[in-house]
């Protein structure tokens, strides 16, 4: 992967940056995404944010080597703290981390979201955390994607601020309002696989008699999740 040939996952993330946008890529690692967006002119300005020294230096090196220091500012810091009002950022990208961490970054940086018109989020796990966050903070999910790369399945969600209250059903939070409607082959395969894994866990727990109260609660929770999957996939 490099700034010209992104991974399939990052390419899909980048496809949602469309129109001369001012972007902040939080957790930018090698800054491939901002370099790609600037080179393809979908972004006019970018901040590459990194909290860890190694990836921060890699991002600096990459941006310098491409001669893009005028358009891409590499900043070291935690989450959205590196964004200033004067940056006039339209779009924030947070990709390649867990949903819980992305949610924490959004919660801790809540004041930095005013004026932002788009969030492009690619959690590696627990996307439901971000859908729940979107409902609590009135961000509408305008697009979702699901794709497979190197035998892993990734979800991407795109959000825009909403004037009206955002309300999701339990199923929409868990599976994604757009992904449920689309019911793609990858979506079905992901949830079949998850349900099978939960079924196996139930069998393992149940074979250990007597079943403790804690394990009984776990079984009930997993059975509930399997029922949700069966209901959505039927
Ligand atoms: N965004 C790139 C991608 O999707 O390929 C890199 C993903 S990499 C797995 C996650 C990066 O996020 C790491 O470089 C890590 O140092 C950075 N990171 C984790 N927590 C962060 C935070 N709170 N603020 C900024 N960067 C963070």
From TrEMBL:
<protein>
    <recommendedName>
        <fullName>SAM-dependent methyltransferase</fullName>
    </recommendedName>
</protein>
<dbReference type="InterPro" id="IPR029063">
    <property type="entry name" value="SAM-dependent_MTases_sf"/>
</dbReference>
<dbReference type="Pfam" id="PF04816">
    <property type="entry name" value="TrmK"/>
</dbReference>
<dbReference type="GO" id="GO:0160105">
    <property type="term" value="F:tRNA (adenine(22)-N1)-methyltransferase activity"/>
</dbReference>
<dbReference type="InterPro" id="IPR006901">
    <property type="entry name" value="TrmK"/>
</dbReference>
């Amino acid at each position: 992967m490099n700034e010209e040939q992104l991974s399939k996952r990052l390419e899909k993330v980048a496809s949602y940056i469309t129109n001369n946008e001012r972007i902040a890529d939080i957790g930018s690692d090698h800054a491939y995404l901002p370099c790609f967006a600037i080179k393809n002119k979908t972004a006019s300005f970018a901040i590459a944010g990194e909290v860890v020294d190694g990836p921060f230096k890699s991002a600096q090196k990459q941006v310098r080597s491409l001669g893009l220091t005028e358009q891409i500012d590499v900043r070291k810091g935690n989450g959205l703290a590196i964004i200033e009002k004067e940056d006039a950022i339209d779009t924030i990208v947070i990709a390649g981390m867990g949903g819980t961490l992305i949610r924490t970054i959004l919660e801790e940086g809540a004041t930095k979201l005013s004026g932002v018109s788009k969030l492009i989020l690619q959690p590696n796990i627990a996307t439901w955390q971000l859908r729940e966050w979107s409902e609590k903070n009135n961000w509408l999910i305008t697009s979702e994607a699901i794709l497979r790369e190197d035998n892993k399945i990734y979800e991407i969600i795109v959000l825009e601020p909403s004037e009206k209250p955002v309300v999701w059903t339990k199923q929409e939070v868990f599976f994604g309002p757009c992904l449920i409607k689309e019911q793609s082959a990858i979506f079905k395969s992901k949830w079949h696989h998850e349900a099978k894994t939960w079924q196996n866990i139930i069998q393992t727990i149940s074979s250990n008699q007597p079943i403790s109260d804690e394990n009984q609660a776990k079984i009930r929770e997993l059975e509930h999740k399997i029922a949700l999957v069966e209901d959505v996939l039927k």
